[in-house]
């Protein structure tokens, strides 16, 4: 759409969320999440600052990755841990059985990652983990589900939780179109990426979600370049 309505969160179904979407395009989309995340998501900065810096070789960590997709982020994190002599177990939760199957195959050399086919609305193993992470999940969920999820994670008080996603704006929308359309073909990256931005949030909307969730751990909301936000919470105060 050339002039989409960006004044409010759009109610759209992304191609990758359709159970009958072509599997070859779905799997190419998951493979292309790697470069997309690397260039746009800022996950490396976030995970270095709030997870890796919090871990020590003496204390093995457990991380729950909600809506993990193809697990490219989890695999990067495990490689970082291996290099630093840190032990981390990741539970990668994904509700689409086709995506979970793809992720299981992609993680075959990563015994530290357990892929679980489960909806995040079902009971979460929050008492068993130190860190909770979700990248690009919140925009898939209606506001009330986001609020309930944030409240549930926060009440479980893991050491840290990191929820990151895109900010909805004119520049994010057209910038994403310009940066991706020439390079990402035969996948849902461009169409779903643009739909994701339309489904995503403004900073004021994220603040409203946090206000409704009433977190009890110290929570900070960060704006990141390019057109992103991250909610950082948990019982270990993160001042940076
Ligand atoms: C945009 S993708 C992001 C994947 C990954 N986190 C990343 O950053 O590359 C969102 C993922 O969340 C999954 N998802 C959406 N709703 C979910 C739910 N209710 N429970 C579990 N996973 C969900 C989708 O199937 C999809 O794989």
Structure description:
With 240 residues, the protein is of the alpha/beta class. The chain has one domain: 3-Layer(aba) Sandwich (Rossmann fold), CATH 3.40.50. It contains eight helices and seven strands. It has helices at 23-41, 43-50, 72-84, 97-106, 143-156, 170-180, 189-199, 203-213; strands at residues 61-66, 88-94, 113-117, 131-135, 160-166, 220-224, 228-233. The protein has a seven-stranded mixed β-sheet with strand order 3-2-1-4-5-7-6, with helices on both faces. The longest helix has 19 residues, at 23-41. The N and C termini lie far apart (38 Å). It binds S-adenosylmethionine. S-adenosylmethionine (SAM) is lined by residues 33, 37, 67-69, 73, 93-96, 99, 119-121, 135-137, 140.
What is the CA-CA span between the terminal residues? 38 Å
Tally of DSSP β-strands: 7
Overall geometry: globular
**Name of the top-level CATH class:** Alpha Beta
SSE class = alpha/beta
Name the CATH superfamily classification.
Vaccinia Virus protein VP39
**Element pattern in H and E:** HHEHEHEEHEHHHEE
* Beta-strand content estimate: 15-25%
CATH architecture: 3-Layer(aba) Sandwich
Specify the helix fraction band.
Answer: 40-55%
CATH level 3 topology: Rossmann fold
Q: How can the largest sheet be summarized?
A: 7 strands, mixed
Mean pLDDT: 95
Total helices: the number is 8
Strand order of the largest sheet: 3-2-1-4-5-7-6
The rounded Rg comes to: 17 Å
Give a topology summary:
Blueprint: H1 23-41, H2 43-50, E1 61-66, H3 72-84, E2 88-94, H4 97-106, E3 113-117, E4 131-135, H5 143-156, E5 160-166, H6 170-180, H7 189-199, H8 203-213, E6 220-224, E7 228-233
Parallel strand pairs: 1-2, 1-4, 2-3, 4-5
Antiparallel strand pairs: 5-7, 6-7
Helix pairs in contact: 5-8, 6-7
The structure holds S-adenosylmethionine.
Residues 33, 37, 67-69, 73, 93-96, 99, 119-121, 135-137, 140 line the site of S-adenosylmethionine (SAM).
């Amino acid at each position: 759409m050339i002039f989409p309505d960006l004044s409010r969160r759009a109610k759209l179904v992304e191609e990758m969320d359709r159970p009958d979407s072509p599997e070859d395009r779905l799997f190419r989309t998951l493979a292309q999440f790697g470069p997309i995340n690397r260039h746009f998501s800022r996950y490396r900065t976030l995970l270095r600052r709030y997870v890796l810096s919090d871990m020590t070789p003496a204390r093995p960590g457990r991380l729950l990755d909600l809506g993990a997709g193809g697990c490219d982020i989890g695999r990067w994190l495990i490689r970082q841990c291996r290099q630093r002599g840190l032990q981390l177990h990741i539970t990668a939760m994904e509700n689409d059985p086709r995506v979970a199957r793809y992720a299981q195959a992609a993680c075959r050399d990563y015994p530290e990652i357990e892929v679980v086919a489960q909806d995040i609305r079902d009971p979460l193993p929050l008492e068993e983990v130190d860190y909770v992470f979700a990248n690009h999940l919140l925009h898939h969920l209606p506001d009330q589900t986001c609020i309930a999820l944030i409240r549930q994670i926060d009440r479980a008080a893991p050491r840290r939780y990191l929820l990151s996603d895109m900010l909805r704006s004119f520049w994010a929308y057209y910038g994403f179109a310009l940066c991706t359309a020439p390079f990402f073909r035969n996948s849902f990256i461009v169409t779903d990426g643009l739909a994701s931005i339309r489904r995503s949030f403004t900073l004021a909307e994220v603040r409203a979600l946090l206000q409704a969730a009433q977190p009890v751990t110290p929570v900070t909301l960060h704006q990141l370049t390019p057109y992103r936000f991250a909610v950082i919470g948990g019982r270990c105060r993160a001042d940076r």
